[in-house]
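[job 4417] fold queue: 2 targets
>>> target A
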Amino acid sequence: MKKVVDFFKLAERLECEYRLTRMSDGACQSVASHSWNMAMMAIALQPLLKETINMEKVLKMCILHDLPEAVAHDVPLHQQNPDICAKKHDQESCVIAQIVNLLENPEISNCFKEYEKRVSLEARFVKALDRLDTGVQHLCAKDLTYVGGFKDNFYWKLFFSEDFAKSFDFEPALKDVFEEIKIRVSNRLKKEFKIDSSKFIRGENENS
């Protein structure tokens, strides 16, 4: 039981690790909150999916996928480069080994590997939920000005890019819900900031 309690102490630290994303009360979103949101969205979307999916695997992946950040920490996308990503990957691999040892369950390692490789339907679904939560926070954030506060509108260009949208193409329900979120985010930008979201599409001149 000592190892299990040690795992609980490690996992609790995820509640203290914060993402760049803001919430409806203006506070930064914790990584634990992000993981919970993904699990909630998985439950809500399951009946709408075209393909049959293993929900036990999905929920486990949602809860575990960012757990190594309890030790390795979250690194915002605009700060990432090949060296930082390589270092973070090595740190997270060490944390995963630590988690497997504490829980004495090698299946945990398989769960992380499956998510990282994105081969299974469940892993692709979880990655889509990871991105979908970004859109939900764009709808809920008390103030969206922080999103545009990074060089050359980095995060808006990412959110409205074709590459981002492709994450949902494999499942019609995901594609539809993302389109609905994107429309609402676009409307919010137009209403609150008089900004036309079409200018954020990659490859377009911002002033066009």
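>>> target B
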Amino acid sequence: MSVSRRTRTIAIGRRAIGGGAPVVVQSMCATKTRDVDATVAQVRQLAGAGAGVVRIAVDNEKEVAALKEIRRQTNGVTLSVDLQENYRVAASVAPWVDKIRYNPGHLHHIERSRSIASKVGWLVDVARDNDCAVRIGVNCGSVAPEFLERHPHDQLEAIVQSALHHCDLMERCGFDRFVVSLKDSDPEKVVAANARFAEARPDVPIHLGVTEAGMPPEGITKTRLAFEKLLARGVGDTIRVSLTLPNERKHEEVEVGHRIIEDVAAGRFISVPDFGKGLNIISCPSCSRVENESFVELAQRVKDLARYAAAHRITIAVMGCRVNGPGETDDADLGLWCGPTTVNLKKKDVKVGSFGYTDVLPKLREEIDRLIAERA
């Protein structure tokens, strides 16, 4: 599918992105990066399903050696690296990947005395020296504090302005080989944020994603509702469908992405007028950051348990790691932020308690019942 919105064209490895090129489907490995054999197998699984770019998370120097070997065994695949909260690892991973993804909301975590502009400048130098593209990945669960303070009652504007600011920082460094993503778990906000950004910067390629879309089939519906509206307007140069799936099914993200692109090109759209008016369960896609693989099973059990509350407008967030767990669960009516051995149960930003993976469901049921009673 070629889009009518003509951004500039950038190279990600041997792939051309933007400028009317076909929309590229991406996905992300859910295996532990240090498990080289499993990660190589998953890279090949995703690429075999049609992923044009495969992303791998690297959180520390210990994972760099693994990434080097993964690259050696998957040399024909376009690889992107997710820097997580440690932007300093960029210099070590850049020689082995085609694109670097950083989150503007995470740059303040390390070297707090150093300015954000100098950190971005350093990342640009690393990318340029290693022939890498960059993704500026703004996420609703981790918006940079500076922009939340500037727009205290408008998170959407905070997301857009953060993205625009980082585009400006890159271009001040003479670097324009970047794409931008503006993600939220609410498809309507995804449409609004990306449409607003595209109007302000029609030249910049955009990566689309509904973060923490959840489990199929609802997660697919959320994603379609956003992607259909944007792709039909020519907004979106790469996409990722973020579904909560076990490792052996991660390739389904890629298949769904291609199906959405084909349907939009053929003029096939879905209509779900009452979608999102009742129970809403968001859960992050399983990835290498997940601290306990039981997270995927727990997400499904939460979905099954909460069916009785389907008519109630309640949002439950099930998050598998520390990166987006705190922010996303703060925004939900009830949140389960999953750690290595315990699950933090929250009511908005107030912690109810920490429970074992097998003990948290009865507590969640109590909180759902309490919330329904309070609203009644």
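[job 4417] complete. Note on B: The chain has a mean pLDDT of 92.
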